[in-house]
Amino acid sequence: MTQTPELPVRADDQAGPEASGDGAAAPAAAPRRRRPHRAWAVAAVTFLTIIGAAGFASLPGLLIEPLHAEFHWSRGTIGFAVSVNLALYGLTAPFAAALMDRFGIRRVVAVALMVIAVGTGLTVFMTASWQLVLLWGVLVGLGSGSMALAFAATVTGRWFTERRGLVTGILTAAGASGQLVFLPLLSWIVDRHDHHDWRPAAVTVALAAVAVVPLVWLLLRDHPADVGLAPYGAREFVPKPPPQRGAARRAIRALVSAARTGPFWLLAGTFAICGATTNGLVKTHFVPAAHDHGMPMTAAASLLAVIGVFDIAGTIASGWFTDRFDTRRLLAVYYGLRGVSLMFLPLLLADSVHPPMVFFIVFYGLDWVATVPPTIALCREYYGEDSAIVFGWVLAAHQVGAGLIAFAGGLARDTFGTYDPVWYTSGALCALAALMALVIRRRGAAGSPAAPAPEAAAA
Q1: According to the UniProt record, where is the region Disordered (predicted)?
Q2: In this structure, is residue 27 part of a structural domain?
Q3: Maximum average pLDDT range among 224-233, 347-356, 388-397
Q4: CATH number of the domain bearing residue 136
Q5: Average pLDDT over the chain, rounded to whole?
Q6: Which residue of 10, 114, 205, 404 is surrounded by the most CB atoms within 10 Å?
Q7: Confidence (pLDDT) at 434
């Protein structure tokens, strides 16, 4: 005797099925009041979590001078801890989705937040530089890497069918919004204490991580099926897939396959320079460099926060351009203009904010993550179904480049007494990235799957 299957749950049906004892339908005169889909609550919690993650990423650049003054550690040593943090953030990202598929989004994010809270909180007791590397570099790097792009991508992929692009854009903007909130706040906390006591700022970041954990545990769910719903916009109920045990192996296989092609190395190289000239250089060293010229730390941090505002507009515009222009030429233009602006930056640093510096901040903000849409488009063009995983590895190169320049910048400041050589070298690297982007050849068969075309492999 066969069992009658349950009817699928519609995306706009928030309550369980209500039927009378004899199966009669509810009277039409008493319609139920619809509530917002649970997906929006999940997206809101994700947004708040990513904003908190921006606080973890905002603190290292503010700690270089205070840690140097208190412990007399070299800026290269402090930069090395930041470089470990950035590198692990990137290297963890390709595996974060695998962890979420295996253990669930809620568990992975909650554990990651607690790891960040422990790593950040224990820094107030550290007395040696290796403790900074272990706590801020390793623990916070692993925790924040588990909430990288894979977090937002997994949430939007599971919970939304309609408005997926809009929600992805909003969650991407959360990082910039968090930077806008946390940078001025943390710099004010550091600057208001005598001798620039950094400990209250570290405790603030730790408490922010802990505060989000209850929201994640109570409101975040791994899949719409956990609460008997279809994804937002879906017409039919989608069963929850079983835990995936081979996702990590797939990530490795995608890396091995892509590494045999020339475009992968060109994309990874350009994106490594992108990370070096943004997260590694400007986000880490702009505040101490401006402070070297007499600018108050709060003013420098506020300028850095403004970059986060304009990178939202720059990313949206870049996505529009990517649909209409050659992505290789776009990347060449973005990197070329970024290199020119970095060459001029040493001439703009002063003890106060002036119009040319404001122009640099606006321009650099527009260009900050404009490279992301064309890079994703090129990954999709060459690697088809594996493009998201390949982009994860390209993103890992981005963070490794950021980590290297974070260390090199501090080392150069210790050696030369100024950051000027770093700005000029980074400008030259951007020129190299522009040339690398132009070298990437078009696929002979657009839209073909991950296997590279012969001319692509030779690029």
Answers
A1: 1-32
A2: no
A3: 347-356
A4: 1.20.1250.20
A5: 79
A6: 205
A7: 94
Q: What is the average pLDDT across 250-259? A: 87
Task: Please report where in the chains the tokens 């040696």 appear, as a residue.
Answer: 128
Are residues 217 and 88 both part of a single domain? Answer: yes
User: Which residues neighbour 101 within 8 Å (Cβ) at sequence distance 6 or greater?
Assistant: 154, 241, 243, 244, 247
Q: Does pTM top 0.90 for this prediction?
A: no
Distance between CA 42 and CA 157 in Å, rounded?
A: 12
**What is d(CA 351, CA 349) in angstroms, rounded to the nearest whole number?**
7
Q: What is the pLDDT of residue 457?
A: 36
Strand partners, 232: 160
More confident residue, 7 or 318: 318
Does 364 lie in the same domain as 314? yes
Is 403 strand, coil or helix?
Answer: helix
CA distances from 283 to 65, 68, 365 (A): 14, 18, 11
Residues listed for the chain: 459
Query: Residue 271 in contact with residue 397, Cβ under 8 Å?
Result: yes
